[in-house]
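Example record used in the benchmark description.
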Amino acid sequence: MKKTIYYSLLICILFTGYSNRTTAQQETKYKVAIVGFYNLENLFDTINNIELRNSEEFTPEGRNKWTSKRYHEKLNNMAFVISKIAKETSPDGIALLGVSEIENKGVLEDLVKDPQIKDRNYQIVHYDSPDWRGVDVALLYQPKYFKVTNSNSHWLNMADTSFRTRDQLVVSGLLDGEMVHVIVNHWPSRSGGEKASRPKRNAAADLTRHIVDSLFAIDKNAKILVMGDLNDDPVNPSVKDHLRTKGKTDQLLEGDLFNPMYKMYKDGIGSLAYRDTWNLFDQVIVSQGLLGEDKATFKFYNAKVFNKSFLKQEEGAYAGYPLRTFAGGVYMNGYSDHFPVYVTLIKTAK
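Model output (structure tokens):
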């Protein structure tokens, strides 16, 4: 079958029409774009960067005994996951992938060379951030589907000048010729307790909202995808009130964002687990420009947590939890403490 820019036979939805009381089925073909996010959980190289707090732990002599062998096992595991995300929907897999907890651009350059995803030719948008742990966010994209036109790194500045966290990455570009904007986040953690740390995430949400409003000032119908490990659930004030998201499309006011993860969270679906409780910190949120019935341009179709069985611990007290690289100081040769999340965008194939 001939391949278009996004495989026209990726999603086929059957619409039913009626003529003289008989039923006719007409197959409508769509182009598909998969856009997602994955917290890679401490993807560090083996070189000690004395300026970074965690770097010494990820060396052969460090606490994690982070050898070249373990580093390459981590790369292989991450590439395997990326190669599988939404593969049943799109043969080329994920077109745009935001990532977090990466030490530098070099680890991503090693990652995209892995044979499991090398043929996708992922390109990288990355800026060094001021995070005290030495981890950054970035965007991977397939250039045959997405063309970057602009990118910026925004730092979160707070009254506490000693506080340093990840930047917020904004990448604008053409997705099959359509302008879209992606904001990749990794908001401040809950270290010190959820309540005590809440103002930091609220401030991060305010920064994201400011970026969103700046894009709306240029185009009120801008197609925006806010993604990341927000360290808060869809119901928390940072996401719901400060970022201005809602979980139902019929409740949206002008400028509000739609959070498809809200219903998932209410249904008990999570992307990470802690003390037998599931959280859905990893989210992809969309602007109203990506909603609607007119599929002449890309529109939101669905959202999913990629929680396949191979990503889960099989036994023990933490059975069903994400299978991590380390657990309790023991090397597990797993993946991440987070599951990836993604959304499917569709438009009518011409």
